[in-house]
Amino acid sequence: MSRIVAGPFNRVEGDLEIKLDVEDGTVTAAYVNSPLYRGFEQILPGKAPADALVYAPRICGICSVSQSLAAANALARAQGLTPPPNGAHLQNLILAAENVADHLTHFYMFFMPDFAQGVYADAPWHEEAARFRAMGGPAQREFIPARAAFLHIMGLVAGHWPHTLALQPGGASRAIGRDLQARLSGIVTRLRRFLEGTLFGDTLESFAALPNAATLAQWAGTDGPRQSDSGRFLAFSEALSLEALGRGPDLFLSYGAYAQSGAPAFARGVYRAGAVSALDASAITEDHASSWLIRADGPREPARGLTVPDADAPDAYSWCKAPRLGGVVAETGALARQLVDGHPLLRDLAANGRGNVKSRVIARLIEVARLVPLMERWIWEIRPGDPFCLHAAMPDEARGEGLIEAARGSLGHWLEIRKGRIFNYQIVAPTTWNFSPRDGAGQPGACEQALSGAPVKAGEASPIAVQHIVRSFDPCMVCTVH
Amino acid sequence: MPLDMPMRETLSLLWLQSGGCGGCTMSLLNAEAPDLFSALDSGRIGVLSHPSLSAPDGAGLGDLFRRIRAGEQPLDILCVEGAVLRGPRGSGRFHLMAGSGTPMARIIAESARAARHVVAIGSCAAYGGIAAAGDNVTEACGLAFEGREPGGLLGAGFRSRSGLPVINVAGCSVHPAWVTETLDLLSLGQLGAQDLDEFGRPRFFTGHLVHHGCPRNEYYEYKAAAHAPGQLGCLMENLGCIGTQVHGDCNLRLWNGEGSCVRGGFPCIGCTDPSFGERDYPYLETPKRGGIPLGLPTDMPKAWFVALAALAKAATPERLRRNALAETVSLTPCAGPRKQKK
Question: CB A51 to CB B283 under 8 A?
C-alpha cells in the first residue's frame, strides 16, 4: 500500500488536501482535509442580531446570497416575519440568479478544464476538449461575458454581487416597477440565448424534459446538442465512463429550494433507494471526532452546537465537522435536490441509488434548464405597488433557523438571541456535509466514500480520477471551514 | 497595435488565497468592458497560478511555489486574497497550505519578498477585515496593516522589489475594475507611491466619497430620512449609512451594471475602510447622541452641519417627506420647469 497526499487543488473554492491510501492502482481509503479555519461562529456571538446580515454573506464569496438568505430566514423566524409575495419573489429571483451563475461557473471554469489537461493528450477527443482550457480557453471567453451580463440582475435588484444586504428578514430592500421587470426579463432572455445556443444546442424545455438515460444518450447524438458544450461533456463522459466513477452514499438530503413563496419549487425531503421520505431536521447532528475542535459531550444538534478550535485534538485530520442525519452520512447538492424532487432523468442516472460524477454534472445542467424558466415566471409575478419588505422589532430572547438550498446543497443557520444579542450562531454548509471527515463511528464522509475505488495510474501525483470526483461535488471549502 | 505603443514584456502573476471567502475573485469574474481575460491580455499579464482559475494542481503547483520563493521563477506581481492567519498562538496552523504542511503565512511572506509588486486584494488581505472581527481568534491581519495600524505580516517598512509598499485594493468585495486597472497600471509602470493614499489604496478609486453620485442625494440634502430598509429616503440618519465618510467611487463606477449598496436599498457599511470588520455599534443603525447622528461628514464643521440640517429639515418639500418613507415614488416632481418671468 502506498500513500498519496493530493493538493493543493486549483479550481475548487478554497484550500483542500486529500490523503489517499492506494493499493494495486486503486484508492482504498481517502481522508479529506480542509486545512483552513476561519471562525465565524466565534465572531458572531455578542453582535446585534441583524449584524448577521453583514457577516453571514462573507462566509462565502461564491454562495454569498445563499448565506445571506439563510441568515435572513433565521432572523425572520426569530422576529415572526413572513415576507410579502413581492419580497418572496425577489428573494427567489436573487437566489436563483446566484445558483444558476454558480452552476455555470462550475461547469466552465472549474470542471470542464480537466478534460483539456495533458493527461488526456492522446485521447481522440482531446482536440475538441482544448475548447475548455483553463485560464482563458475559447469556451471561457464566451461564458465570462454571458455570466457578467446575467449578473446585472444583481446590480438591478441586489445592489451588487457578492455580499449584498438586499435580502432582509421581511423581504427585499429594492422595490421594482414594470420598467425593471422588463429589464430583468431581457437579461434572463440574453442568458437563455447563450444556454440554448452554446450550452445545450436545444431549448431549455427540451433538455429539462429528457425522461431517462437512454433518451439523454439519443439526444446527445442529434444535430445541435452534439455540437453543444453539454453534448461535448456527454461524449467525454461516455469515453471515460464517468458514470462508473465517484459512487457516493445512498442517502440524499434537500431542505427544499425556492420556498420563499410557499411551496418550494424543488421539494424538501430525503431520498433513499428510490423513495422520498419527510426530512426531520431535528435529527441533524454535528460530530467532532475527526475535527480539530473541542469535543465536549459528543455529537450535538446545531441549535446547541459548539465550535471552539483545538489544533491538538487527538485523531483529528480536518477543520471540518461531520454532520449526520440520524447518524447517517448524506450527500447534498443539485443531484440530491433533483432526486428528492423526482426528476426522472436523474433518478435513472443514479439507478443504483447512488450518485456518480456524470449524474452530479447532469443534475446541475438540468437545474439550470429548470431554473431559468422559473425566473422568467417569477419576474412577472411581482406586482408593482404592493409591498416588498415588512418590518418587525427584534426580540430580546428568541431562536430561529434558516434552512435553504445553496447551489452546492443544503445550508442551515441556527441562531439564538439572548438579551438582545446573538448568543449562539451555528452554520452547517453544503460542503460540510459532502466533505466531512470520519465521524465517531468511523463512517467516512460522502466524498471520502466516493473516492474509494478510484483508479490511480502509475506515477500520478494528483490522480485525474480523483480530480474528476472531487470537482463533481463542486466543493466550497471556504464555506466548509467558516 | 499603434506604432507608438511601447512593446512591453509579459508580466508574471501569482495569486494566493488565505483567510477569506474567495468573493474578490468571484467579483473579478464580473469585470466588463473589458472582461477579465481581455484586461489581462491588454496588460500583458501572464497568470502563473490562480487557485480558482488555472489548470495546474498538486505537486507541480507546490514546485512552482517553491521555485518562486527561491527566486528561480521570476515573479512580477503577487496578489494575495484573504487575511493572513497567524494563529493559533503565532503558529500559522489555522491555514497550512494543502500538500505542504507549511503555514500559508510563511509562503505569503516569502513570495512577497520575491515579488516585484505586492497587491492585497480586498480588505481582508489589506487590513485583516472581516477575518479579524470579534476577538480575532485566528490572529488574522493584513499584509502590511492590522486594521488602521501599519504592520501586519510584512511590517510597516516593507517595500517590494519595485520600491512600492503593498498596494491595497481594499473593498469587501473589491470592484472588478479596481483590480484590473491596478494591474494594468502596474504593467504600464504608471502606478507610483504618490498614487497611493495613506492606507496604501490606489487614489483612482479612493479619491472619492461613496456619497458622490448617491442617487438619494436629494433626500440627503433635505434630511428626508428612511426609517426602515426598502424605503427611498436617505439612509444616513437612521440606517447606518456612512457613505459621506467612506472612500470609494462606488456610486460613480457602478457594480454589476447599474448597482451599488445604496441603489440596492441598503447603507454603505464602509467596506473599503481599514477598520472594516469590527465596530462598536450595529451596522444597520445610526448611533446618535442627543438625537444627532454621530459620524458626520469628515471635512465639515459639526456646528455648520447641524445648522444646515435644521434648516434643510424645515424646508423639506412634501414630495421628499412622503417618498422618503415609501418603497416606490408616490409623489413625482411638478411638471416641467417653471416659466421664467421677464
Answer: yes
Please say if the pLDDT value at position B6 is more than 60.
no
Q: How many CB atoms sit inside 10 A of residue B209's CB?
A: 23
Distance CA B180, CA B186 (A): 10
Taking the Cβ of residue A39 and every Cβ of chain B, the question of whether any pair is shorter than 8 Å is answered with yes
Give the DSSP H or E segment for A368: helix A357-381
With 70 as the cut, is the pLDDT of residue B5 above it?
Answer: no
Residue A277's Cβ-side half-sphere holds a number of Cα atoms within 13 Å equal to 6
Place of cell 512591453: B8
Q: How many residues does chain B have?
A: 342
Asked if B47 is an interface residue toward chain A (Cβ–Cβ < 8 A), one would say yes
Secondary structure in 3-state letters for chain B: CCCCCCCCCCEEEEEEECECCCHHHHHHCCCCCCCHHHHHHHCCEEEEECCCCCCCCHHHHHHHHHHHHCCCCCEEEEEEECEEECCCCCCCCCEEECCCCEEHHHHHHHHHHHEEEEEEECHHHHHCHHHHCCCCCCCEECCCEECCEECCCCCCCCCCCCCCCCEEECCCCCCHHHHHHHHHHHHCCCCCHHHECCCCCEHHHHCCECCCCCCCHHHHHCCCECCCCCCCCECCCCCCCCCCCCECCCCCCCECCCECCHHHCCCCCCCCCCCCCCCCCCCCCCCEECCEECCCCCCCCHHHHHHHHHHHHHHCCHHHHHHCCCCCCCCCCCCCCCCCCC
Residues 108-137 of B with CB under 8 A from A: 130-131, 133-135, 137
Euclidean distance between CA atoms A431 and B244, whole angstroms: 40
Contact (Cβ atoms closer than 8 angstroms) between residue A431 and residue A480: yes
Nearest by Cα to B104 from B78, B86, B126, B130: B86
Cα separation, B296 vs A221, in Å, equals 66
Tell me the three state secondary structure of residue A196: helix
**B6 Cα to chain A: minimum distance (Å):** 25
Hey, which residues 349-408 in chain A have their CB within 8 Å of chain B?
A: 384-385, 387-389, 391
Helices H, strands E: what count in chain A? 18, 14
- pLDDT band (50, 70, 90) for residue B8: low
| Whole-complex ipTM | 0.97
Instruction: Report the pLDDT value the prediction gives residue B1, as an integer from 0 to 100.
Output: 39
Neighbours of B304 (CB within 10 A): 11
Mean pLDDT computed over B37-55: 93
With a cut of 80, say whether residue B338 has pLDDT above it.
no
Q: What is the DSSP string of A441-470?
A: T----HHHHHHTT-B--TT-SS-HHHHHHH
Each residue's pLDDT tens digit, A37-80: 999 999 999 999 999 999 999 999 999 999 999 999 999 999 99
Q: Please, what is the Cα angle at A414 between A410 and A417, to 5 degrees?
A: 160
Q: Are strands A26-33 and A17-23 parallel, antiparallel or unpaired?
A: antiparallel
d(CA B28, CA B40): 11
> What global pTM score does this model have?
0.97
Q: Does residue B174 contact residue B27 with C-beta atoms inside 8 Å?
A: yes
- B215 close to A (CB below 8 A): no
Angle between helices A138-150 and A85-105 (to 10 degrees): 170
Mean pLDDT per 10-residue run, chain A (482 residues)? 91 91 97 94 97 97 97 98 96 98 98 96 96 96 98 98 98 97 98 98 98 98 97 98 97 92 88 97 96 90 93 94 97 98 97 94 98 97 97 97 98 98 97 96 98 94 94 91 84
